Amino acid sequence: MRFQNIREKALPERSGYILYLVMSLLLVWAIMSFSLSTFKSGSVSLLTRTSMQSRLTCAASGGMNEIWAMARQEANDKSGKSNPLHFYSLLNAVFDQNENEIPPKKTFVSEKFFDSNDLPFANVMAGEISGNDIRVKGHCRLFFTKLIRKSPQSFSGHIEVIVQAVSKSDSREFIEIKERRDFKIIDTRDLLDRYALYVKDYGFDYNKIRQKLVIEGLGPKVRSSVYLGSRYAPNYPAFKNLAEPAPIYFDFNFKDDKVLLSALLNNNSAVIPQGGQEIPSSNPKVRTGSSGNIFWSIPIPLRFKPIFDRGSFTDSDFYTVKALQDGYYKTFVETSQKAGGEEHSLAGLILEDWKNCGGNYADSQVFKMVVTTSVDSWGYLYAYTDAQSLWNGDLWSDFAKTFQFTGLNEYIKFMKNYHPDKMISGSMPQIFGPERNKPVTLEGNVFFRFFKIAFFDEFDAVITLAGESKKLGMPAIPLHFQDPADNSSNFLNKEVRIHGIEKQLMSREVDEIPVNSLFSAGVSSYPEGVASPDNVFLTLSTDVISYKYKNSQDFFADNTMLLANGEKRLKVDGVTFIEKGNLDLSGYSSFSGQGLIWIGFRGDIYLGDLAKSKPSDILKLWAQDGSFIIKSDKPDVKISASLLALTYFSDPLRTKSSLGNRGKLIANKHGIEITGNLAVDYLFTADKNYGIPEGKKLVIKHDPFLFSPVYPKWTTLGPVRTIYSVNADSENRFFK
Fold first, then answer.
1. What pTM does this model have?
2. 49 assigned to some structural domain
C-alpha cells in the first residue's frame, strides 16, 4: 500500500521531466535544423561566389593573354605606323620626343585602353563560361625608363598590363589582374652596316686570279663602302719608315677591267691625257707588237731635247749608256778598223781618238759628238700595260722580250727582296661588281698597279767629222727600271716634267693612283669619322642584350622552329648573347626576325646555306673571339647574314698579333656567296686546305636591307613576368 502511494506520488514529477526532456530534444532538433539550413545556404552561396570568381579569373587571364599576344604581334609590325594606338606606334613614339621628355632625363610613358570590343576572344570566352554575364576590358602603360644606347638611341623599360573582368549583373563581382614584363627597343643599325667588306689586317690574296673576290655594292646611286686595312703588314723593305699604313696594290688588268679604263684614265687623282692604242715607233714591228698588249700610248713621239733642257741634264749624264757606247763603237770604231784607217783619213782620226781615250768613252771626242747628236735626234716613247701582259710566274711574255720593251726585265728580281708580293702577276678583285658598274667608296691605302714601258726610239742621222759626213744609225734604247729606294740619281730616275703623270724617263711600275679616285675624290686611308680603324667593333653594351645563354644547346632549345618540310628555321629576336662555345648553324636552312647573335669567349660559327624567311629579316652574327667556318656537303653555299669576326680582347695578356686570335672566314674548299656583309680581322682566299678552290669565288652582295633597314628598330618583350598580382576588391582597384 505504501509502495502504491509512493508510485502515485512520483508520477506527476516524472511526467514533468519527460516533458522537459522531450521539449529539450525538440529544441536541439530545431537548433540543429536551423543550423543545417544556415550551413547549407552559406555553402551554396560560397560555392556560387567561388565559381564566379574562377570564371572571372579565367576571363581576366584570357584578356591578359590576348593583350600580350597583341603586343608581341604588333611590336615590330611597321604596318601600324599610321595608327597611334598600335603597339608599333606606342613603342616608337619615344623616338619622336624632345630629349627633355625621355630617359635619362625623364621617364617617358605611353598608354592604351582596351574596351570589350578590343578584346574579342577574351569576351567571347567570358560569355561562354558565364552565360554572357562577364565583360572583360583592360589597360596598359609603357614606361621607358633607361637609355641603353646613345647613338643610335635604344631604350629599355617595362609594360604594365591591367585586365578587369566584371559581372554584368553585379558589379561587385570583380577580378583584376596586373602583370608587368620588361622590354627593350633597340636600333639595330651600326657603323659596319654601311660596309660590304671590312678587313683590318694586311691581305695577300686580293690579286688572285683563280680564287676571285667579288664585291657587289648597292651602286651606282647609293655607295657601299669597303675598308681594306694594313694592320700587321709584313716587314718588307718597301714598308720601312712609312708615315701612312702600308699600301695595298690592285693589279689593273686592261682586258678584264676594260669597262674601268675610261675611269682610270680620267681618275680624280692623276689624270692621264688622251693617248693611242699602239706605240708610234718608226719601226713597224714595234707598232704591230704593241697593239693589243698595251692599253695606252703616247700618241706621237716626244722630242727628247726639250725634256733634256727642262731637266737640266748634261751630255755627261748619258756617257754611261751602254747602248750609246755600243752604237758608237760598232758604227765608228769597228767600221774604221775594217777600213784600215790611214793617217789623216776619217777612219784614221776616229781610231786615233779611240786610242787616246784609252777605252774611256767620256774622253772620246767622237763619242761626245754621238751623244750630242742623239740628244737632238731621240724620240721618247712610252706606253702603259699590265702585269699579265708582261709575265706569268717566272716567264716573261714574248711581248716583254721585245728589245724595246725590256726596260722592266730586272723588276721581278729586284722585288724578290724589296716587296715579294709584287712578284705575282695578278688581276684585281672585282670590287666594283662583276660588270664593274657598281662604284663603292674604297677606304684604306689601296692603289692601282700597272706598268710603264719606255724607250728612246731608233733613228738615223748624219754626223760631220773632219768635214766628212757620216751616217749614224742608232738603235732603240730601252730605259730600264731603277731601284726606287736608291738615292743615287741618274738620268733614268731623275725627276723632270715629261708628259701626263710621268716625271721620270725610266720604265716603271705605276702605283700612285688610288683605286678610290675612280669614282671619289681620292685616297681615304681611314674610314670616315674613325680615328683608329683597328678599334672598330660593334657599338654594343651588355645593356642591349635581351637573352643570355650559357651555350648553344640552350639557345637552340628556345629558338628552333621545325617547318612542315622537316627543315629547321632559326628564330631571331633582338640581341642574344651566348657565353662560350661553338655555334653550329649548318643544319638550319633559314631564319626569321631581326637581331644579333653574339658569341663570347672562344667560339666559332659554322655555316651552310642560310636564307631569310622574308626580305626584311636581318641576322647579324658576331664571333667575338672566333671565326666563321663553312660546313656543307654542297660545293657552293649561299648565306644571307651579316658576318662579323672582329676579335675583341679584354684580356691584356693575350696578344693581338697571334694568328689564332684573328677572326677569319674559313671557306673549307667551298665557293661562297654572302648577301649581307663581311667584317673580319684577316681575309684569305688562296689556301690549299682551307681556302676557296680554284675557279670558285667569294661573292659579297651588300644587302640593301642591312644598309638601310625597312625597320631599323626592334622590340623584344621579356619572356617572364616581373610582377603578377590579383585583386578582387572592387572598391580598391588597381585602375579605375
1. 0.86
2. yes
